Amino acid sequence: MKKEKNDIINKDMTIGEVLELDEKLADVFMGFGMHCISCPVSQMETVEEACLVHGMEPEFVLKKLNEQVKKSK
Questions:
Q1: How far from chain centre, in Å, is Cα 26?
Q2: Which of 6, 20, 36, 38 is most buried, taking the most CB atoms under 10 A from its CB?
Q3: Predicted model pTM
């Protein structure tokens, strides 16, 4: 995924950092079957790492997360 100027979330952010931006982003993770949001490891695991562990394409998940952030504004 090409980084857009307005993208807020990137692959190096932890799941915890993403959820600090907006708790509703948990729904995006849950929609992908990524229930790691409640796991203590989420405070240290990056979005990219979580995606790879769950067999997801990080670029696609990031796109959906950033789309949700833009909708919420």
A1: 8
A2: 36
A3: 0.86
